[in-house]
Structures are given as C-alpha cells and as structure tokens.
Amino acid sequence: MAAKAKAAPGYRCSECGWTTVKWVGRCGECQAWGTVSEVGAVSVRTTAAAAVERPAVPIGQVDARRAEAVPTGVGEFDRVLGGGLVPGSVVLVAGEPGIGKSTLLLDVAARAARQGGAGGQETRTVLYVTGEESAAQVRMRAERIEAMAASLFLASETDLATVLGQVDSTQPDLLVIDSVQTIASGEVEGAAGNVSQVREVAASLIQVAKSRGIATLLVGHVTKDGSIAGPRVLEHLVDVVVQFEGDRHSRLRLVRAVKNRYGPTDEVGCFDLSDVGIVGLADPSGLFLSRNTLTVPGTCVTVTLEGRRPLMTEVQALVSKSEIPTPRRATSGLDSARVAMIVAVLAKRAGAPIGGSDVYLSTVGGVRVTEPASDLAVALAMASAVKDQPLAQDAVAFGELGLAGELRPVTGIPRRLAEAARLGFRTAYVPTGTAGSGPVPDGLQVVECPDIRSAVVAALQPAPR
Predict the structure, then answer these.
(1) Residue 204 among known ligand-binding residues
(2) For the segment 304-329, what is each residue's pLDDT rounded down to a tens digit?
(3) 324 is in an annotated binding site
(4) Is 83 marked within a binding site?
(5) Binding residue per annotation — 98?
(6) Which strand (E) or helix (H) includes residue 101?
(7) Binding residue per annotation — 156?
(8) What is the C-alpha to C-alpha distance for residues 163 and 30, in angstroms, rounded to an integer?
(9) Which CATH superfamily is domain 67-282 in?
(10) Taking the model in full, what pTM does it have?
(11) Is 307 annotated as a binding residue?
(12) Which end of the chain is more exposed for a tag (fewer CB within 10 A), N or C?
C-alpha cells in the first residue's frame, strides 16, 4: 500500500505551484482555472555544492557604477524609470491593445540609438524584435514618427532560438521585444502565449540580459480585467513593471511604474499621442482645462495628484429638472458610486434641491479622476449648476467630503497650492487646517472651510460691485 501511494501521480498548478493528488479544474490556492496539470510523483532532490567562480566580496567593495541609469532621451519615460535604463535590467511594459506601447518603445529605441553609449562610443546599438508586425510595417511607423536611426536594427521573428541568434550577431546595448507573448520556444510544448511558453521565453531573455548587460524592454499584453497576461511569476522575474494607461478616445497617455527596483514607484509620465507620434508632456495641466474666457455655471477646477505630480483638472456639472420619476445620474471620468454619495451629502447637509433633478458630471480632456480630493470640486460644481451662478474664474477647490458633511484634509497640499498659483489661480477653497501644513504661495488666498455648507456659501457668495 505504501509503495502504491508513492507511485501515485501528482498534479501541480503552473501559476502558484500548488500540488494535489488528483486533478481538479480550479487551483485551490490561486483559484486559477485550467492551470493544474500532471507532473508525476513528487521526489525530494538535493544539489551538491559546486565550485565558486566569483567569490562573495564585502558590500563596500561592490562597484555601484554598474547600476547607474543611462537616459533614453525620452524625459517622461526616464522619470518613471528613475533616470533611465540600467544595463542588464529587464523592463516589462504592459497596456491595452492600440494604446501606443509600440509607438513609445520605437521612439525610445530610436532616441537611445542616437545617443552615446558606454565607453565613450558615439552611438548605441539597438535591436528591435517584432513578432506582431513585419519589418516593413515598423519602418513605415518609424518614418511617420521620425524614429529613424542608423544603429537601430529591426528583426521580425517569432522563434526564441532565432531571436537569441539575432542578439549574438548584433550585440546590442538595448533590446526591445514586441511582444513577449508572440515569441515561442521549440523546446516547450504549446502555442505561443500560453503559460509555459511565456515563462520559458522570459527566463531565457532575462538570463541573456543579465549575463551580457543588455538593457531589455519587453512588451506585455493585458487581459480583460487589465492584469498582465501570462503567469504572475513574470512580474517577479523582471526588474521594472510599467503600466501604460489612457482612454482610447483621449490623447493623454499615462505611464506609471507598478514595480521598480531602481527608482520610485510614485512617478507618472504624461504623453500626448497624435498622428505624428507620441510626445512627452512636461506640463500636461493644459489638456484638462477648457480655456473658456467666460465664466459658466457648473464648472470647478481641482488639483489631483498622479504619483507626485499635481495636475489641474476641470469638473463640469449640469443639473436639470427630471422628466422621469427616477432622476438620472450620468458620469464621465468620475466614479459613479462616489458621485452618488456626494449628491446625497450635498442635498442633506447643504440643503441643495437636487433630489428630483437629473445630474450629469464630466471631466475635461477625458481624464479619469478617482482621488477623494476632488470631492469638494464636484460638490461645488453641482451647487453652482443648481443656483445657476458661476464660481470665480480664478478659483480652485480640493478636499475630501465625509458623510456628515465635514471636509477632511488631503495629502500633498503644498504641491497642490504651488501648482494652482503657478497657473494663475488666486483663490483656493480647502478644508480647515490646510494652511498650517506648509507655506502658502504669494498671490494665492486660501479659504478654509470646515464643512460643505460653509464651502458653498463662501464660493457662491455674491461678487462685490
């Protein structure tokens, strides 16, 4: 009986490594479907000690220059990476289809190829491997976005062995793989893109990058829920995971680092995607303001934080009498559940007659605002639309709204106030206690409000003649 139990086959989850004695369709550990497969009986293996080729050295004698970042030439991308690409690092760039991943990395590859490399050489050799398009298609895009460079090499390959052969013959300083889900290894069964293939391809490319000091950029696909396709171990193997975000109908693209071993993870890069390519935006606040010279009821400007970068965002509200028994609550760029809470608080705590009216809320420029600091701006925009009285054109508001109607302070107040003053705003409606968190910029008047009722009264008071 004991011998028969030892010979019984085992099953293992390819995602998390969970084992079981019988096959199941769903992993009992990570709850993934279709990842449990037979691996045979589990045996205990030991590894003998091998001769050490590179002995351990004191930490003070380690050469830190090997981890210095080399700028790519794209300032916003370098900001997210922590200064540039470190030789031997592997960066995974993930995003939805058609959002601009290939365009950005082609621009990065061309700019890196034009810059000087290590050792005083004039240019750097860059190898761009595409598994989704032909070399001619990539050439046409490069001409359109002006990403031509003499030391930029293109290869259209889908076989891992051929890709490694291209690396051997080219000896690049920067390697771009577009994308890791389209490369397949002949040593592993299954089609390209499955869990085993992605794991094998990524492990081989990472081993080459680490052993030869080649900075590598991997493009990764995402699933319907926005997570990176393939095994989760892929995110653990790479050094940097960069998420490419943006609305398909908007020009703005945000690049944020989800994981970064060489820099911070709270930096965000802003890009403008157009027909002629993708351009970094050092000052993207202008995209989210309507630039209207007339004061219109139902608009309010707030300051949001994307990472450590403050962005000016305009919120627009339209409140009209409802023609149906159940009033509509439509939002664009805002969280509908949070908007419903703000509507209830505004009606209960500030006495706004908004219960029987349709409420439409939107942000300018297609930006997505989810930060609680925008609650006060949303409430003031709706209050302005209800009274049909515009707010001051040079006013800005930010603060978190509670169910009791109180206003709570938010983080990053000095940066928000400095950004508002830089763009010419003269009045800021903020929660009580904000002024004591840091210096107030010159020319900016800070109006502290303890609750939503006082904020509405202060913002919508009649202007002096």
Answers:
(1) no
(2) 988 788 889 999 999 999 988 899 99
(3) no
(4) no
(5) yes
(6) helix 101-114
(7) no
(8) 33
(9) P-loop containing nucleotide triphosphate hydrolases (3.40.50.300)
(10) 0.75
(11) no
(12) C
